[in-house]
Design brief:
This protein is α+β, with helices and mostly antiparallel strands. The protein contains eight helices and 15 strands. The protein is 25% helix and 32% strand. The strands form three sheets. Strands 1, 2, 3, 4, 7, 10, 11, 12, 13, 14 and 15 form an eleven-stranded mixed sheet that branches. Strands 5-6 form a two-stranded antiparallel ribbon.
Length: 256
């Protein structure tokens, strides 16, 4: 889907809608936070309002939906959408953050772990489940992100939250690496799924890599790498922006 704004002879936007109101589908690289991506796009193109439709951890890559202009008002609709991922866990090593960026807290033997055991652990975490948010996370308690409290050495009681896992499938078993495909509801901590399976198996585990392939109705196949977007001029960027009117129509309930 493409859209050109009112500048330089492009078709005018609907009344009350700016030609830069829309979404961008970005393939986020490993390293920057979701906020970093928002900041880079805002600074590069001078947009006043930029947000995103669901956080990706710095280590994670893949689809990040960037909301521009008045589309930021729809952020809650994107944040609550289902997400799909491809990833891998590493058996035998547990970290304080439950992913590869954390400090190693335990190393255990994984030699006896079988494919069937891992698949059974995934099956037990499919459907409606309760998850305890990790201490190293952006979830706020009394207005303070948990990761800031973790840096101070604090460990707080966290309330288990309901989430739904539609699919959790093992796609490759080559210990210590176990690859998987996952489709889940908003608020699901993929690294916690991996860590919990590791604890259940007695060997520990952490999330080694993660790539988001879908967010709601939007897929990674339609996204462009962040660096490629940042190299464009504004007119070039707008050819890849999905306008607000199309976004709103897609979010509207009922037959399309």
């Amino acid at each position: 889907m493409t859209y050109r704004g009112a500048r330089h002879g492009h078709p005018a936007a609907p009344a009350g809608v700016e030609y830069t109101d829309g979404i961008l589908l970005v393939d986020k690289p490993s390293g920057p936070t979701s906020h970093d991506v928002v900041h880079r796009i805002r600074r590069r193109f001078g947009f006043r309002k930029v947000g995103h439709g669901g956080t990706l951890d710095p280590q994670a890559t893949g689809l990040l939906v960037i909301l521009v202009g008045r589309t930021t008002k729809l952020s809650s609709r994107f944040l609550t959408s289902d997400k799909s991922y491809e990833g891998a866990m590493c058996l035998g090593v547990a970290t304080d953050s439950q992913d590869a960026q954390g400090q190693v807290v335990a190393t255990r033997d994984f030699a006896g772990v079988t494919r069937a055991q891992v698949e059974a652990g995934m099956a037990r975490r499919t459907g409606d489940i309760l998850q305890i948010p990790p201490m190293v996370s952006a979830k706020k308690v009394e207005g303070v992100p948990l990761y800031k409290r973790a840096r101070r050495g604090q460990v707080l009681e966290r309330e288990a939250k309901p989430v739904h896992v539609y699919e959790f499938t093992l796609t490759a078993f080559a210990p210590p690496r176990v690859a998987f495909r996952l489709r889940c509801s908003k608020g699901t901590y993929v690294r916690t799924l991996c860590a919990d399976i590791g604890e259940e198996l007695g060997c520990g585990a952490h999330l080694a890599e993660l790539r988001r392939t879908r967010s709601g109705d939007y897929t990674l196949a339609d996204a462009l790498p962040l660096d490629a977007l940042l190299e464009m001029n504004l007119d070039g960027l707008l050819t890849h922006m999905i306008p607000l009117r199309e976004v709103a129509a897609a979010l509207r309930p009922g037959p399309r």
